[in-house]
Amino acid sequence: MNALHGRSLLAGFVIFLVTAAGPSGGFVTDAVAGTAGGGGHAPMTWVGTVFSNVVYIPAKVVYAGLGAVTTGLAFVVTGADRSVSNRVWNSSVEGTYLVTPRMIEGKDRVRFVGP
After folding, report:
1. SS3 of residue 68 by DSSP
2. Does the model's pTM come out above 0.85?
3. Is residue 24 pLDDT above 50, yes or no?
């Protein structure tokens, strides 16, 4: 992938996030945060939300994927001990997958690692 193509993909992803989570009542934020019509968040909160998710979402997906693989390995190595594999699964796969404006404002907690 050349640099221009990579920048185009990143620009398209950012435009999607801005559209989906925009202050005009985006579907992603409405579904996750339970707000309608933007929820009265400042414009810079929306900017922070979008740019946070550009880094956060891929990091969380990679972490969860590696955790899922590790869960399988833990299950095999421990002789099918579900308590060990469940702890690995819960720690890596559960948690927050999308940063919301309320999280940027410090009103809600971001849980990268599950309970």
Report:
1. helix
2. no
3. no
Q: How far is CA 65 from CA 25, 71, 95, 101, in A?
A: 31, 10, 13, 25
Distance CA 56, CA 108 (A): 16
CA distances from 40 to 66, 98, 101 (A): 37, 19, 10
Helices 82-93 and 43-77: crossing angle in degrees, nearest 10, is: 160
The two three-digit tokens of residue 83, written as one number:
């308590």
Cα gap 53→23, rounded to integer Å? 16
Distance CA 105, CA 103 (A): 5
Q: Where are the domains of the chain?
A: 3-104
Q: State the average pLDDT for the chain.
A: 78
